[in-house]
Amino acid sequence: MTASHEYFEDYEIGDRFTTSGRTIEVADILTFAGLTGDHYPLHVDEEYARKTQFNGRIAHGPLTFSMAVGLVALSGTYGTSVEALLGCDDLRALRPVRPGDTVHVNVEIIDAQASSKPEFGKISLAYNVVNQRGESVMTFTWKVLVRRNAKSEES
Fold first, then answer.
1. Which of 62, 73, 91, 120 could bridge to 140 as Cys pair (CB 3.0-4.6 Å)?
2. 79 vs 18, 111, 137, CA distance in Å?
3. Tens digit of pLDDT for each residue in 72-98?
4. CB-based contacts of 59, cutoff 8 Å, min separation 6
5. pLDDT tens digits, one per residue of 126-154
């Protein structure tokens, strides 16, 4: 896969890439709780969380999801090709993410098809969020609308 995609035609099914890592800190969890209003004690109260099956606080699932989306965006792989989000399918939280865990995202292009509008194409990408031990912690399919290259439409 190229470093950056500018058009639908730059994407090929089967292409893969891996993002850099990001360590999840307690500050990230508390900031996310403040931004979303989700102050559930499993995330913000260490003493409460120690009495749960997790034996300590864990990151919000939507925080892990958001970090994954951000890591892919920061990678620059999409370039300027993405026009809009179409959806997110099959989201699965597989393992808890704890403060101090470092996650990265393995991404594979699994589908590319024309849109009903000729100036766009649709791309589906499988996201696999992985911790520092190589364990998958979350998976989902990310679907985006990307611009087509007007020059290739003319050919």
1. 91
2. 15, 18, 26
3. 999 999 888 999 999 999 999 999 999
4. 24, 28, 29, 32, 43, 96, 97, 98, 99, 101
5. 999 999 999 999 999 999 999 998 775 55
**In percent, how much of the chain has pLDDT > 90?**
84
Q: What is the spatial distance between Cα 121 and Cα 91, in angstroms, rounded to a whole number?
A: 23
Q: Does domain 8-154 have CATH number 3.10.129.10?
A: yes
* Helices 61-75 & 26-36 angle (0-180, nearest 10): 110
**Number of other residues whose CB lies within 10 A of the CB of residue 94:** 11
pLDDT given at position 21 = 98
**Rounded distance between C-alpha atoms, residue 120 and residue 35, angstroms:** 33
